[in-house]
Write a sequence for this structure.
C-alpha cells in the first residue's frame, strides 16, 4: 500500500500505463488538418470575395449601360415628338388626302375627255363621207377627219399648234418642244 501513498510513484505508474504517443500523433494530425482546412477556407473566401467584386463590377457596368440606353431612348422619343410637332403629321395627312382626291378628280376628268374624244372620233369615222363637204363642196376624206380629230385632241389637252410649234396653253403658251420635233408631229398630222 505504500505505493498508493506515494504520489510521485503513483503518477509514474499511471503514466506508464498510458500510451499517449498515438494520441499526440492524432492531435498533431488534427492540428495539421485544421491548418490546411483553414488555409483552404481562406483561399475559397478570397476567391469568392474576388468573384463577388467582379460580379458587382459587371453589375455596375450593366446598370450604367441600362441607364445610358434609357437616356438615349428618352432623347430619341423626345426628338421624334419634336419632329412630329414640326412636321404637323395630321395636317400633312390631310394635305396628302386632299391631293389624292384632286388627282382622282383629274383622272376622272381626263378619262371623261378621252371618252368624249373617242366618241367624237367614232362619230367622225361613222359619218357618211358623201354627206360631209367643205365650203367648196369637196368631200372630206378619212385622212382629213383624222387630222381634225388630232387637232381636237390637242385642243382638249390645252395644246395648240402655232407656227409649227406645240404650245402649252396652260403655261402662258410656252413651247412644249423644239421646232424640229413639233414639225415632225405636224408632218404626222
Amino acid at each position: 500500500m505504500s505505493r498508493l501513498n506515494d504520489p510521485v510513484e503513483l503518477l509514474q505508474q499511471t503514466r506508464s500505463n498510458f500510451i499517449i504517443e498515438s494520441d499526440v500523433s492524432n492531435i498533431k494530425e488534427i492540428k495539421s488538418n485544421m491548418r490546411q482546412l483553414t488555409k483552404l477556407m481562406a483561399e475559397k473566401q478570397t476567391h469568392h470575395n474576388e468573384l463577388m467584386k467582379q460580379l458587382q463590377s459587371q453589375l455596375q457596368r450593366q446598370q450604367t449601360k441600362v441607364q445610358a440606353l434609357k437616356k438615349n431612348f428618352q432623347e430619341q422619343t423626345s426628338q421624334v415628338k419634336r419632329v412630329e410637332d414640326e412636321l404637323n403629321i395630321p395636317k400633312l395627312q390631310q394635305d396628302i388626302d386632299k391631293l389624292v382626291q384632286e388627282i382622282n378628280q383629274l383622272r376622272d376628268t381626263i378619262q371623261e375627255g378621252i371618252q368624249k374624244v373617242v366618241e367624237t372620233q367614232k362619230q367622225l369615222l361613222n359619218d357618211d363621207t358623201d354627206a360631209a363637204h367643205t365650203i367648196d363642196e369637196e368631200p372630206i376624206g378619212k385622212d382629213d377627219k383624222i387630222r381634225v380629230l388630232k387637232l381636237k385632241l390637242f385642243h382638249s389637252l390645252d395644246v395648240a399648234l402655232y407656227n409649227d410649234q406645240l404650245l402649252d396653253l396652260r403655261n402662258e403658251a410656252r413651247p412644249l418642244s423644239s421646232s424640229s420635233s413639233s414639225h415632225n408631229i405636224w408632218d404626222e398630222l
Q: What stands out?
A: The first strand starts at residue 159 and ends at 162.
